[in-house]
Amino acid sequence: MEQTNNGTSSTGPAVITMDGSYLALAKARLAERPPALMPSYEKLLQDAEALLALEPEAVTRKKIVPPSGDKHDYMSLAPYWWPNPDTPDGLPYVQRDGEFNPSSKNGDTDSVRMQTMCMGIQCTSLAYYFSGQAKFAAKAAEFIRTWFVTPETRMNPNLRYGQAIMGKIDGRGTGLIDTRNLWMVIDAVLLLEGSGTLSVAEVASVRTWMKSFADWMLESDIGIEEFNSPNNHGMFYDMQIANYALFAGDTTTAKRAVERALELRIAGQVAIDGKQHGELERTTPFHYSAFNLDAMMNIARYGEQVGVEVWTKRDNARGLRNALNYLVPFAVAPASWPYKELRGHAETELALPLLLKATRAYGNDNYSHAVTQLEERPLVVQEYIALYKAINLPHPTTSNSVDRLIWPIK
Known about the structure:
By secondary structure, the chain is mainly alpha-helical. It has a domain at 229-375: Glycosyltransferase (Alpha/alpha barrel). Helices cover 51% and strands 4% of the residues. The chain is built from 16 helices and 6 strands. The chain has helices spanning 20-30, 38-51, 111-131, 134-148, 182-192, 200-219, 221-227, 232-248, 251-269, 277-280, 285-306, 320-332, 351-362, 365-373, 382-391, 403-406; strands at 8-9, 12-13, 75-77, 81-82, 94-95, 161-164. The strands form 3 sheets. Strands 1-2 form a two-stranded antiparallel ribbon. Helix 2 packs across helix 3 (111-131) and helix 12 (320-332) packs across helix 13 (351-362). The longest helix has 22 residues, at 285-306. The chain is globular and about 60 Å long. The two termini are 20 Å apart.
């Protein structure tokens, strides 16, 4: 696409995971105040306005010090492990399966902070793009600068202490799922280029950070452990590597990750009938099936940029599309879902972005029609829980989700 001086293409911003032409389409439509998009736009601005008052998140604000003694190192805790009641220092932690240790989901560590940071950056950067209001760009830049650039607060580019079990394991490969939404930061940086809120040096610093983090993922024992994961963890690993490599301009590494995901992850995780058996074994099987499929769709998006076709490969057996087609009927009729769910019903909130992305990829009226059939329900998933607790506003729903702005139906 033809590039302009502000880093955008003639058909929209040159983002990587989102599609600049679709963002441009939504922005053009908003001038006419269409009923299909206005609820999402108004919710986006409301949330972004609330974020203006929120102090930027930083790993240095956590209460528990990681084993390195350096609060610049990210740290999260395995959720079902608790301080040992039989030892003076609470170590080693003991397992209480199914019971969340509050320290794994509050300010004691960084997992909630990471999601608030990613979602806050996405919200404010999109609010800037669609509204043109500089205050939102400034806030997004402040979030980015605090987490990735400023020496006093920046995160070290590693996840050595992710999903730690205190007194037993300093960090595990499973912790790398915590960084799955860093794509939001990357696209936000690209949206902000030309706004003047991030300097050239600061953008370069973020690019360097992402490359260093990808190198750590590829070379460290913990990263290799996650590489070998057979379920959504392995899928999100390759998704992240491809994303960071594209941001760094390393198309060779990005293409290798996309090809590996296509031939190893997707072919290995999607059955002939479209079921994802590794995710159906979970306590919330619909959520995890949709969660993993969302990673596949991001990988397919990266494939578009490195010349690897993922969307239509193995359409009818062991491919992305037949995994999607298996879920669609249950997304529109959750009561028919045949698997046991922890909360007694299929958690179909993630179906909306899947169907919107599918409409873009396949131009199939069945997918856009399915969007109109989705039940109205709040988006109560981990990323949203963290953000909306921080800004004290109602969760978005399937009707006013920002996904409708990101992936508008043509």
